[in-house]
Design brief:
5-stranded parallel β-sheet, 7 helices, 7 strands, globular
């Protein structure tokens, strides 16, 4: 398996996303209130002479996870850098300033996994290992972000199936929240399994995430992070958070 990075400079890509959102706001004479960014996955290339593995090797998951973390760190750092820019420099570049009163909604979409040569077996395209955030304590503080929304890109035909979707650890949202001291709202759309209970029929199991069972359920990580915030997260979730939509 060869791993290809389509956009090697994650900082430039994030900066372009923020500036694109700011330019659209400026065109209609509005302050910046909404930033969207897509987290892409590394492109996996299966060489013709190599058999496709039945399960994804650990080193591939590690590489994808590192790329996922790097993009989240870049998003936080570039948002902080944009907030630090002067109004004059933003006006010169025809970019909208951040709305300090209303704050900013940040929407993150986790992209689907792509392959150069798609495997015939279904196991490599239904991912079970969850993506985690590395070194979350180094994220900068973003007091101007009032809403955080994290969602998944859907399947290849926009059918919201979980083929090629990389599940995200439920510990990632709390790790992101503690660095948003002014956050008011969070929305998580299906970061985990499609059905909360194991499906009995094979066709349904085929197109839904494998149920892990109560002892290996990823939601334990979320519960531990909420109950032991300072121990698990280093900081506490801001008391300003008043609205949460959690679908998992």
């Amino acid at each position: 398996m060869v791993i290809l990075i389509l956009e090697p400079d994650v900082d430039d890509r994030v900066q372009a996303s923020i500036q694109e959102c700011a330019a659209r706001h400026a065109e209609v004479g509005r302050l910046l209130t909404h930033v969207t960014h897509d987290l892409d996955m590394l492109l996996l290339q299966n060489l013709q002479e190599e058999p496709v593995p039945y399960r994804e090797p650990v080193h591939e998951t590690t590489a994808v996870n590192a790329h996922f973390s790097a993009q989240l760190h870049a998003l936080y750092e570039q948002l902080a850098a944009y907030h630090a820019r002067t109004a004059a420099s933003l006006a010169e570049a025809k970019l909208a300033s951040i709305d300090e009163e209303k704050g900013v909604q940040v929407e993150i979409t986790v992209g689907c996994q792509s392959f150069v040569r798609y495997p015939h077996c279904q196991h490599p395209i239904y991912h079970a290992r969850r993506l985690t955030l590395q070194n979350p304590e180094t994220l900068p503080s973003l007091p101007f972000v009032l809403k955080l929304r994290i969602l998944h890109g859907s399947g290849p035909v926009q059918d919201f199936q979980f083929s090629r979707v990389r599940p995200v650890s439920l510990r990632v949202p709390p790790e992101c929240l503690v660095h948003l001291p002014g956050v008011v709202e969070i929305e998580l759309s299906w970061l985990w399994e499609w059905l909360p209970v194991p499906a009995a029929g094979q066709p349904i199991r085929h197109f839904t995430r494998v149920w892990e069972g109560p002892w290996r359920d990823a939601r334990h990580d979320f519960g531990a992070a909420i109950e032991k915030q300072e121990e698990m997260l280093g900081l506490r979730i801001p008391a300003t958070l008043t609205k949460a939509r959690l679908w998992f």
